[in-house]
Amino acid sequence: MDVSFRNYRREGQAYEFLKTMSADWDDVWVPLPAPTQGHRTDWVAGDSDWLDAAGIYGETGQLSMDVLHYPAGTTSKVSWFGPIQRPRMSAAGGNQPGRYLDTMLVPAPGWGDSGAGHVGDAYANFDVNDRETL
Q1: Per residue in 88-124, pLDDT tens?
Q2: Alpha-carbon distance 86 to 117, whole Å?
Q3: How far is the C-alpha of 116 from the C-alpha of 12, rounded, in Å?
Q4: What distances in angstroms separate CA 3 from CA 34, 57, 84, 85, one per listed residue?
Q5: Are 2 and 39 in contact (CB under 8 A)?
Q6: For residues 74 and 36, what is the distance between their CA atoms, to the nearest angstrom?
């Protein structure tokens, strides 16, 4: 995978999770250091299903919208920290509306980066006001 990190500034400590989907789902997600700006090549097992996430501590977090599948013998491109575009929902991130008895839960991620297929949040970024109202 050709991976690019496109944050607007170099400051901050970034991380990335890249996890193969196993039948038992009991793996622990461990953040790996990543640059806030730059490019690198990651090698992954082809023909496996993956979940991918990245973030910058205290600023932003992003998660792939869907389960990813990289065919063996091909090169894929992944881009993180692109310009913020619009709110998005994601099946992979548990961001689908749900109902339990007389309660509705409608998690709405505040945004997604432009064209990269990610949903985003701003947990622990107290400079951002990200709320929903009816």
Answers
A1: 666 655 566 778 888 887 766 666 776 667 887 777 7
A2: 11
A3: 21
A4: 10, 19, 18, 20
A5: yes
A6: 26
- pLDDT digits over 28-57, tens only? 677 889 988 999 898 888 787 888 889 888
- Report how far apart, in Å, the C-alpha atoms of 45 and of each of 34, 54, 56, 97 are: 20, 19, 26, 32
Under 8 Å between Cβ of 20 and 49: yes
CA 116, 49, 112 angle in degrees (round to 5)? 20
Instruction: Tell me which residue has tokens 């996430």.
Output: 53
pTM of the model: 0.75
Residue 111: strand pairing partners = 120
Domain ranges of the chain: 2-121
Centre a 10 Å sphere on the Cβ of residue 61 and count the other Cβ atoms it contains: 20
pLDDT, mean of residues 52-81: 86
What tokens were used for 130? 């990200």
Q: Is the pLDDT of residue 23 over 60?
A: no
CA distance 89 to 106: 10
